[in-house]
Design goal:
Elements: H1 2-25, H2 48-57, H3 60-69, H4 77-84, H5 99-108, E1 115-116, E2 121-122, H6 125-177, H7 179-182, H8 185-210, H9 219-239
Helix pairs in contact: 4-5
Length: 240
């Protein structure tokens, strides 16, 4: 029996030492839970008197009152400047994280009863709401600038695409205008024949002008002349 008790004591001590080591390595936060009712109901059935009695017995109400009468909000200089810098300094200005820099923000915001500590700003619970209220115009302006910026970037990206589409529309329209002609193969072939005839006539006229001969008067004469010229050319070739 003694050995079992000694073994359990050593085991408990080792477990306690391990727990203390884990707590020292971490930053524990203790949460106090309040039972909403005694029936263990899950339907948000809150017994106000029962819940208030628990808060009073655990000292939460007194703690809350003391915090409200004191300075519950205690941001560091760096955090305070990061959030409220625009209220007292230009955003482009490099401002050191010091007490005077934070005091200048409080002065511009007409906050008189906040205190400047060595590394933190001590504010009452209503100071944060007042400062956040003063930030609303800047937040709205930032959202508006962001919208215009997004619109500008979208237009800049879409402009080349729109211009490319308009060029494509022009090319497609020009191609579509040729469809009525392409729909009649006979018309196309006839136009091609006329072009060939015209080139042949122009060449024959030029040759006859060089030989001081009159130009042909019609397509039939032109054809006959072309045939005669072809025969003469073949005869000369055979003679040679």
């Amino acid at each position: 029996g003694g050995m079992n008790a000694s073994f359990l004591a050593r085991q408990f001590k080792a477990s306690l030492v391990s727990l203390m080591d884990d707590l020292n390595k971490a930053e524990p936060h203790f949460i106090r839970c309040i039972k909403p009712n005694q029936a263990k109901s899950k339907d948000w059935d809150i017994d106000s008197e029962y819940s208030t009695r628990q808060l009073r017995y655990t000292g939460m109400l007194d703690t809350t009152r003391i915090r409200r009468e004191g300075y519950p909000s205690r941001p560091t200089f760096a955090d305070f400047l990061e959030r409220y810098k625009i209220l007292g300094h230009p955003m482009s200005k490099e401002v050191p994280s010091t007490g005077p820099s934070c005091q200048e923000i409080l002065s511009h915001a007409n906050v008189e009863d906040a205190k400047i500590g060595k590394t933190k700003v001590f504010m009452k619970h209503y100071h944060g709401r007042a400062l956040d209220e003063m930030l609303k115009p800047f937040s709205s302006a930032a959202m508006l600038i962001g919208k215009f910026g997004v619109g500008f970037l979208a237009r800049a990206r879409c402009k080349p695409l729109i211009e490319y589409k308009r060029k494509q529309d022009t090319l497609v329209k020009a191609w579509l205008d040729t469809i009525p002609k392409l729909a009649n193969p006979f018309t196309v072939a006839q136009d091609a024949t006329k072009v060939e005839d015209g080139e042949t006539m122009a060449a024959l006229w030029k040759k006859r002008e060089e030989e001081n001969k009159p130009p042909p008067e019609s397509h039939a004469k032109a054809d006959a002349a072309v045939a005669a010229e072809a025969k003469r050319g073949a005869a000369n070739a055979s003679a040679a």
